Amino acid sequence: MLRPIPARILRTTATVKVCNGVDLYQNPTYDEYIVNNVHIQPTNAIIKSVNNTDCQLTSLLFADARRSTPFDWDVMLRTAQENGGDVKVIAHGVERTVMSVDKLMDDTDTLHHWEVGLK
Description:
6-stranded antiparallel beta barrel, 53% strand
């Protein structure tokens, strides 16, 4: 079993906004969640988006399975997309959109951490 991400790295608290539908004027409405003990790191990685186009990420969010607030990023992203919207992360006064979610397992096949690609 791998050790968790060190607590000294997980110093950020983020607000996560998940689309729960649209209002009368077709504007997305959001549920908000607070996720503690995450780390946001700048990046310039390029990934393939859902519609098979290249997308450049600006940041990666790391959320540890044991030290961060429990939050199922896969379910939240899928829910938001089904409701016609997206997931937004607000940290350090900057709002970013979730573009990818990777669930990384340890050597015993249990969740170790999440890596969330942000644009």
